[in-house]
Design goal:
alpha+beta, Alpha-Beta Plaits, four-stranded antiparallel sheet, 7 helices, 4 strands, elongated
């Protein structure tokens, strides 16, 4: 009975092809997501390479979908691959932690210990006296690599837990003191990117 039901079932069209479309679409959307992120970060030389492979994969996938317009499983594979590719691209970018961010710290408390801790961590700092809504405050600025943000936030919470801080993305800098970490497994990737700005 099962043979009579599944004997003429087209496994390639309804199972294998949608899976191929899913993984292909996942790859091309992952590359596309990374390409957009790298453009925003200013890594211009790697972008055309990613774009080439992204479009190449996309053309192959679309060609297969167009040959199987009556196959709902191909549509599901295509849409699922798109969603998974977007998610995967963002996860990879999060792991790479590319780019620079500025951390602004505003406090009306003594922040000498925090400043020493930031300096000991090889983070460049700029301190400005300012006036807040309830009196004088210190504004501390530090521009750091994105991978070091959590370490700086940890120092803020340790030495000035009541301080206000904000973190913002920046595209580029000129001069400055930056913590270097050659132990990272991504150092080779970052060396490539640093030469592309």
């Amino acid at each position: 009975m099962l043979h009579s039901i599944f004997g003429n079932f087209d496994y390639y069209s309804w199972i294998v092809l949608p899976i191929i479309i899913f993984f292909s679409r996942m790859c091309d959307v992952t590359l596309g997501t990374l390409r957009h992120i790298f453009i925003s970060k200013g890594f211009r030389k790697i972008v055309p390479v990613l774009g080439f492979f992204e479009v190449l994969i996309w053309i192959v996938v679309v060609a297969q979908v167009m040959k199987n317009l009556n196959n709902v499983a191909c549509y599901i594979g295509y849409a699922s691959g798109f969603a998974m590719g977007t998610y995967l691209g963002l996860k990879i970018e999060g792991k790479l932690a590319l780019g620079l961010q500025v951390v602004r710290i505003i406090t009306n408390q003594n922040c000498d210990d925090l400043l020493v801790a930031l300096k000991n961590g090889n983070h460049g700092i700029t301190v400005v006296d300012a006036q807040g809504s309830i009196g004088p405050v210190k504004m501390v600025f530090t521009i750091i690599q994105r991978k070091n943000v959590q370490a700086v936030v940890k120092l803020i919470r340790q030495y000035n837990p009541t301080a206000f801080y904000s973190v913002e993305e920046i595209k580029d800098t000129s001069q400055g003191v930056f913590k270097t970490d050659s132990s990272s497994g991504l150092s080779a990737v970052k060396n490539i990117f640093s030469s592309q700005k």
